[in-house]
Amino acid sequence: MTRPDDVIVALDVGGTGMKCGLVAASGELLHEERHPTNAAAGGEAVVETILEVAAALAGKARADGRTPVAAGVAVPGVVDEERGIAVWAANVGFRDVPLRDLVSQRLGLPAALGHDVRAGGVAEARLGAGAGHRHVLFVAIGTGIAAAHVVDGRAFAGAHGSAGELGHIVVRPGGALCGCGARGCLEAEASAAGLARRYAALAGAPRSAAEVAAAAAAGDPVAERAWREAVDALADGLAIAQTLFDPAVVVLGGGLAEAGEQLLAPLADGLRARLTFQREPALVRAALGDAAGCLGAGLLGRDAVEAA
Ligand SMILES: [Zn+2]
């Protein structure tokens, strides 16, 4: 990408919606649009929607006088980035979909397929809260919990495309039942959904994670307890992550990170208290918001051009 008008078609496909756009070589998001994933229609329909949206974005780029030079697509689940295959994603109905080649063929451009959290991590590491650090751990705390270990701007995917599943380390043996079938996984104990469940069990009444956070900040003792227990579980999880990966900075994203200092301050204290020989990382809030996955998809698309 040497010409200033070159752009990447970028899509971040989630369970309910797709965040899509045109990303410049600089990493700037030049144009943004959102579409429903319509996952209920099944995996094949979702793939067709992805192809149509990608083609329309390439058309939009040309209509604006720009040159689409590649496409990047980020999807959830298990992703084989090397072969460009969406191996498995329950919430969008993917099973061994050769999505990279399908996008490349439809657009007539080089394409990259990435994992949504790893793509978000790449964007935060290169352009966001991790910029300037070589070793970044991005942790997304939303409905679930997942992480991306990014070194020199590249995320490690693992041998089978499922590295970084920090949400499924067991921090409370025998604890809350997780969607994966195990008990006491970090995600079951401390995700936004886990926090809401914990509060409901303690209070006997439902509240969303954001409501629990607000109530805890306002001094509600039951919400304070639920919040503290979730933060403790997160600190256990981050201590394990620090021991394994030794990042310089841990970037926290996802819905729960919107609590800001209410989360960061006690989490940093809890992490510090658990570390013995390990060096303490900087703990910072993500900077790119929910555009991170789309920007990351664009960066992966740019990498595909440069590698070609
Ligand atoms: Zn689990």
Jot down its keywords.
single chain, 308 residues, alpha/beta, five-stranded mixed sheet, globular, binds zinc ion
Task: Give the topology, please.
Blueprint (H helix, E strand, L loop, with lengths): L5 E8 L3 E8 L4 E8 L6 H21 L3 E9 L2 E3 L4 E5 L4 E4 L1 H9 L3 E5 H11 L8 E7 L3 E7 L2 E2 L30 H5 L1 H12 L5 H9 L3 H25 L3 E5 L7 H14 L7 E4 L6 H16 L1
Parallel strand pairs: 1-4, 4-8, 9-12, 12-13
Antiparallel strand pairs: 1-2, 2-3, 5-6, 6-7, 9-10, 10-11
Compact summary:
The protein has 308 residues and is α/β, with parallel strands linked by helices. Helices cover 40% and strands 24% of the residues. The chain has helices spanning 43-63, 99-107, 116-126, 186-190, 192-203, 209-217, 221-245, 261-274, 292-307, and strands at residues 6-13, 17-24, 29-36, 67-75, 78-80, 85-89, 94-97, 111-115, 135-141, 145-151, 154-155, 249-253, 282-285.
Query: What's the helix-strand series?
Result: EEEHEEEEHEHEEEHHHHEHEH
Which range best describes the helical content: under 10%, 10-25%, 25-40%, 40-55%, 55-70% or over 70%? Answer: 25-40%
| Largest beta sheet: strand ordering | 3-2-1-4-8
The separation of the N and C termini measures: 11 Å
Oligomer: single chain
Shape: globular
What are the segments in which pLDDT stays under 50 over at least 5 consecutive residues? none
Mean pLDDT: 96
Q: Total number of β-strand segments?
A: 13
The helix-and-strand class reads alpha/beta
Main beta-sheet annotation: 5 strands, mixed
List all distinct small molecules, including ions and cofactors, that are bound in this structure.
zinc ion
